[in-house]
Amino acid sequence: MALLLPILLVLGVIVLANAVAAAKNPQLNTAFDRLMLLLSIPLAMTGLMLALLPENVGAQLVALEDFPLTNVAGTGLVLFLLGLWTLVVSLKRVRLFLQRWMSIDPGSPVHTLALVLSGFLVGNTMLTLTQGGLTELAASAGAASIAEVVLQQGFFALIALFGAGLLIRRGGDDLSARLGLERLNSSHVRWGLRWIAILVIIQWLIGLAWALLNPEQSALLEGINSELLGDFDTVWEWFALALAAGMGEELLFRGALQPVLGIWATSLLFAIAHVQYGFTLVTLAVFIIGAALGYIRQRTNTTVAIFVHFGYNFVLGLLALLATYLEQFVS
């Protein structure tokens, strides 16, 4: 319930950006830029205040019961950078500069908001890293539930749908075309199955390399994953997790963001969104997988990318279940 207000706030701003875009009024576009600029100021100021707090005051805050942070200064730095990013991309001349590398429309409030929210996605990862990274997560990790996964991925899907103009600028076939959603055919399935095998092999090879190069951190991450996903112990639970992640993440990253940010920026954003544990060789694997899914979207459509992402996650889940059953059998 605590997440409901932020979710509604984000969706509300997305709807506002689409309404402004639909009006096709340059003055409203300018007003939206100024709104983003105004929002950036209190965010940056709050971050600066937290970052500059005396160390003893920060320690007293952390010592408070139920205080959610372990690093006040780090949190302040992240908030300051988020405010700075929002301020910078609210300037049209900056977006004109970014247009050299991205397919953004500098005058579009929707594209402006896409840049702002991309920064917040990166900021969420940075915030996690400032609170202790792998070591802290290992100490505090709790099992995720199907409901939590579906809620998060449903939020991603809603951002993609409303960001693409649902109910305001697009609907039906136009919305599907914008997000790259088409019917799967037999050729798509065959091509997708090959890519599922390729991505599983890439994940296995990079995971093996990391286990050989840094066995301690590899074992720590394996323990965290076991703790977070330990309750997923049936085929149907892994099926639901794989389907939710495939649909939510692909609609957002490959469907909504890639046509705006481009394949490389989207793949980098996808990788950063998955590095709550810290930057490791696994991050490289996620970036490669994101780039491969982006290529699939570019060559075919988002539906095939969803199929491949689902299949990749499901195969990894089945392998994890198989490993668990084999361990029980051997012991």
Q: What are the salient characteristics of this protein?
A:
single chain; mainly alpha; 331 residues
Can you describe this structure in just a few lines?
The chain is mainly alpha-helical and 331 residues long. It is built from 15 helices and no strands.
Please provide a written account of the structure.
- With 331 residues, this protein is mainly alpha-helical.
- It folds into 2 domains: 1-131; 144-331, no CATH class.
- It has 15 helices and no strands.
- It is globular and about 65 Å long.
Unreliable spans are none
Return Rg in Å: 21 Å
Order of helical and strand elements: HHHHHHHHHHHHHHH
How many domain units?
2
Give the proportion of residues in helices: over 70%
For the residues shown, what is the average pLDDT?
87
β-strand percent reads under 5%
Per DSSP E runs of 2 or more residues, the count of β-strands stands at 0
Please give the count of helices.
Answer: 15
Write the layout of secondary structure elements.
Layout: H1 4-23, H2 26-51, H3 55-63, H4 72-89, H5 92-98, H6 109-130, H7 133-140, H8 146-163, H9 173-179, H10 186-213, H11 215-229, H12 235-261, H13 263-272, H14 281-299, H15 302-330
Helix pairs in contact: 1-8, 2-4, 2-6, 4-6, 7-11, 8-12, 10-11, 10-14, 10-15, 12-13, 12-15, 13-14, 14-15
